[in-house]
Amino acid sequence: MSRRFVKSFPIHSHGFEIETEMSVHALQLQLPVAEVPTKYGVRPEDSQSKLRTYRDGFRILFTIIGLLTTERPRLFYGVIALLLTLLAFGLAIPIFHDYFVTGIVKRFPTAFLCLGLVLLAAQVLAFGFLVHSIRRGRIEAKRLAYLAQKGHVPKTGEF
């Protein structure tokens, strides 16, 4: 990692989550990333690992989900909107069936619930697009600040 990268990296977490955040930060700034081969030795017999498989795994999973909400908001909120819409249509199938058979809507509360779920899905989707546009502006500002640290100001279209 370069000194400039370390100075530009906002640390929000600790432990294994930092690795995930560093990868996302490097991708946002469009920096080259490479793996460095490392040789590992055998752990001494009387030592114990500090790793906790499930606890550490869940911490990384929740970090990825948190980053997904901020880094890919259209995808995250789009999936939520899709699930809400599918739930609404699943609940509406019996209502439509009854209506086509009898010509009467018998379950008004369920019909209103379906309508509310579809409206909520539309709001969630709109929120995802709003967060996406805010995120794009923040990433552009972050990249410009990163490039300006060394005196390099990007030309038009360099991104």
> Which stretches of 5+ consecutive residues score pLDDT under 50?
none
Number of helices: 5
Mean pLDDT: 84
Radius of gyration: 24 Å
Oligomer: single chain
Percent strand equals under 5%
How many DSSP E strands? Answer: 0
Explain what you see:
This protein is mainly alpha-helical. It has two domains: 1-32 and 53-71, no CATH class; 73-159. Helix content is 68%, strand content 0%. The protein has five helices and no strands. It has helices spanning 3-8, 17-28, 53-71, 73-102, 108-148. Helix 3 crosses helix 4. The mean pLDDT is 84.
Task: Give me a quick take on this structure.
It is built from five helices and no strands.
Annotate the secondary structure layout:
Blueprint lengths: L2 H6 L8 H12 L24 H19 L1 H30 L5 H41 L11
Helix pairs in contact: 2-3, 3-4, 4-5
Keywords summarizing the entry:
mainly alpha, 5 helices, 159 residues, 68% helix, 2 domains
